[in-house]
Q: What sequence folds into this?
């Protein structure tokens, strides 16, 4: 039960705040109006309200009559409804626009400062980045040289194999020539046998 009351109170407070925000009004057009205790020009004066002062509209008797309002300090009273507007006065809008502009200028200044810091860090890192680029370039050159080396080794191995083949062939030819020259000398001292000698 207690939670329901708290929840109901919070809901009423939130609704009241939203209602108050929807009912904000301002004095229009560079005027000072009398805030009175009753909806009459003869009623007791509560205070004077100047252009731009924010107030909460509590009730209105019509645009050409009186409206009951509450000031930020809690005082309530009646004033001419035709001078109330939902729009903030131009001077207040200009002031809030200037504040927003100043805030954005401060933000731009901060962002420029951060950009300068990052540029400084980039300049400090530039040699490392250049070194990394140079390193990548050298790695690419190394890979190209290793590929050339592999091709050269294959060509060398092929040439060695060809030379071995030539040397083996030359040795066989040379051995055949020597054998061809020596064979007649070796067979001269021997007697030739014919088919009839058997």
A:
């Amino acid at each position: 039960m207690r939670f329901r009351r708290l929840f109901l109170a919070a809901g009423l407070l939130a609704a009241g705040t939203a209602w108050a925000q929807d009912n904000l009004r301002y004095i229009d057009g560079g005027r000072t109006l009398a805030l009175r205790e009753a909806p009459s020009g003869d009623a007791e004066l509560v205070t004077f309200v100047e252009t731009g002062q924010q107030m909460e509209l509590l009730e209105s008797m019509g645009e050409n009559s009186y409206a009951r309002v509450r000031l930020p300090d809690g005082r309530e009273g009646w004033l001419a409804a035709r001078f109330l507007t939902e729009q903030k006065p131009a001077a207040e809008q200009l002031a809030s626009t200037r504040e927003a502009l100043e805030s954005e200028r401060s933000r731009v200044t901060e962002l420029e400062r951060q950009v300068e810091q990052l540029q400084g860090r980039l300049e400090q890192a530039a040699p490392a980045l250049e070194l990394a680029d140079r390193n990548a370039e050298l790695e690419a050159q190394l890979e190209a040289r290793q590929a050339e080396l592999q091709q050269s080794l294959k060509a060398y191995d092929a040439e060695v194999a060809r030379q071995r083949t030539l040397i083996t062939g030359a040795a066989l030819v040379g051995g055949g020539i020597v054998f061809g020259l020596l064979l007649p000398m070796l067979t001269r001292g021997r007697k030739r046998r014919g088919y009839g000698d058997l």
